[in-house]
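Sequence, please.
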């Protein structure tokens, strides 16, 4: 179960400044949506709670999610869908701009959160992006976490700090109360540093996060892999080597892999390995979620599996 916003993505697929007549490709994104699709593709059951524009883009979002086997619980809203514009300024450097005020996602409210559904979930996954969209979405996430924590549902939080949306100080103030009530936290080293002072050591960052209350913390260090502290035991998961095509969405893919295996009752080693595999699929393909694997495809990048021919 997850709560968040879907965005339309307009990406220029040739390097260079935006100009009249630049070709743009239409896609869909949103950190929580990416996670829901990733879990569903691995055979897990995923529900996405949101507010969606009552127009063609909103219809497209709901149609895609249906096609991906994700249950969407969405209030339709006359406000438009948020947009993300990706300009490839040079071959190796892209620039992102958000258009996400007065949009359906920014109007997500606590009344949109279905108490009965969340209380019956196994895991509630939230990210630091939705609270950054405004006071009303922040209260919606808090309500979801309140319901989940009260019902004994595992709460998973991906810090997902976006400097284009808010300052570090605002993020810290809003996310610490959520982090304290989470069971499982995903963060990059810089994101973990929003909560834990004085160290850049991933093992110490994981420990520092767990001091706030979560039983598990996973620190993702990109190509260097992941460091995890899970129920008091340390784990190290190397990244799966892959040629980088588009690294956006790798963190969501990682969380999806971990959560799908958690839902399947798999042990931490397996959760982390699948997480790393999904991260590699996301990095090695275009788009945030389009290249994520079905379970039968995991072996394509799993070099432990000698049967790949
Ligand atoms: O994690 C990938 C996200 O960055 C992308 O899907 C868009 O939700 C998004 C955001 O706010 O950046």
């Amino acid at each position: 179960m997850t709560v968040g916003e879907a965005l339309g993505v307009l990406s220029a697929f040739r390097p260079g400044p935006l100009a009249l007549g630049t070709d743009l490709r239409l896609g869909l994104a949103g950190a929580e949506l990416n996670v829901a699709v990733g879990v569903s593709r691995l055979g897990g059951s995923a529900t996405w709670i949101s507010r969606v524009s009552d127009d063609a883009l909103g219809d497209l979002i709901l149609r895609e999610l249906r096609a991906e086997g994700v249950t969407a619980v969405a209030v339709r809203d006359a406000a438009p869908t948020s947009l993300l514009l990706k300009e490839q300024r040079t071959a190796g450097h892209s620039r992102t701009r958000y258009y996400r005020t007065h949009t359906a996602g920014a109007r997500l409210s606590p009344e949109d959160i279905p108490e009965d559904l969340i209380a019956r979930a196994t895991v509630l996954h939230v990210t630091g992006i939705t609270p950054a969209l405004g006071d009303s979405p922040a209260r919606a996430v808090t309500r979801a976490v309140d319901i989940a924590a009260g019902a004994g549902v595992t709460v998973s939080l991906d810090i997902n700090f976006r400097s284009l949306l808010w300052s570090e100080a605002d993020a810290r103030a809003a996310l610490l109360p959520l982090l304290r009530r989470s069971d499982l936290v995903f963060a990059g080293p810089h994101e973990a540093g929003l909560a834990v002072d004085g160290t850049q050591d991933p093992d110490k960052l994981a420990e520092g996060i767990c001091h706030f209350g979560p039983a598990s913390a996973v620190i993702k260090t990109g190509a260097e892999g992941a460091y995890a502290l899970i129920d008091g035991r340390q784990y190290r998961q190397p990244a799966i080597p892959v040629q980088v095509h588009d690294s956006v969405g790798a963190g969501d893919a990682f969380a999806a892999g971990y959560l799908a295996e958690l839902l399947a009752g798999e042990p931490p080693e397996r959760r982390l390995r699948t997480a790393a595999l999904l991260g590699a699929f996301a990095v090695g393909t275009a788009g945030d979620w389009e290249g994520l694997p079905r379970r039968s495809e995991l072996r394509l990048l799993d070099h432990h599996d000698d049967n790949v021919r």
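Residues 142 and 178 are 7 Å apart (CA to CA).
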